[in-house]
Amino acid sequence: MISERMEKMLLNDVNTLIKPADELAVIAANHSLDHALLLMTKNKYTLVPVIDKHSKLQGLISMALIIEAIMDIEDVYFDKLADITVEEVMEKDYPSVTDDYDLEHVIRLLVNNAFVSVIDKEGVLLGIITRQEILRGTNRILHNFETVYQVEEKEKVIEKRLV
Amino acid sequence: MISERMEKMLLNDVNTLIKPADELAVIAANHSLDHALLLMTKNKYTLVPVIDKHSKLQGLISMALIIEAIMDIEDVYFDKLADITVEEVMEKDYPSVTDDYDLEHVIRLLVNNAFVSVIDKEGVLLGIITRQEILRGTNRILHNFETVYQVEEKEKVIEKRLV
Fold this sequence. Notes:
The structure is a homodimer of 163-residue chains. With 163 residues, the first copy, chain A, is α/β, with parallel strands linked by helices. Chain A contains seven helices and eight strands, in the order αββαββααβαββαβα. In chain A, α1 (4-11) packs across α6. The first copy, chain A, is elongated, with a radius of gyration of 21 Å. Chain A starts with a helix and ends with a helix. At the A-B interface, α1, α2, α3, α5 and α6 of A face α1, α2, α3, α5 and α6 of B. β8 (149-153) of chain A pairs antiparallel with β8 (149-153) of chain B, so a sheet runs across the interface.
């Protein structure tokens, strides 16, 4: 359990950690890999959500997955890019939560994932929570927590009460 | 200033946050982009340090930089990959610290960078500090800080003393 104090300082009274879907680069599952590669390069994203025509999250696509799909042990066959769709190579095992997410769970997921996707009950992509937002909160806690709160070793507190 | 308590819990008594250079994928500055792309794809890295023949850090190379270098507005020219060296397109403006780094400074750098490189006085790459390690520490602080320490609002502490 994360204490209310810690959670409040991590979030800094912002309403949400979620970067909304309409501010993200997303890719349609039926697009080809050359389209995906261009979009990712232009936006300097290395990993982006993949959605279907109803905006439902289907998976994640990375530059590494795209290049891997056209590569064998020795060479890369770039002429294959136009013939493969995003849904054929996307990662389908990705972390996601609904918007009533538990912060503790999200932070645990972020240790091993660049972002966590947030979806509604129908699976529509609402946005993502990134490591960047949590690191901003870490910074706040490290700097401000002991300025705002009085912190003592529990043993010392007990000793004081006994005196 | 980060308090000693917070820093200790963030680091969890580990000696170092640094992932050593000999455990990393690194790329030689004079290698060609096709070599870099293969190495990055195989290792599933999207951003890696670039070193010279003396193991001195020269820059960072990303998949996005590689593809950008062979792309114009409409198309990607993959036959150019073998003719361009990593040092021609690498990012030279990157965050780095020496191994007597200030933790506060490193965490601030990690808000906007996937990792911070650690170098010695001669510029030799010693390793990197990643967001993952800091997020592990965040997790520890959020869960354990108020178990180990007694935390009170400063105002309440003053009130108590006045009673």
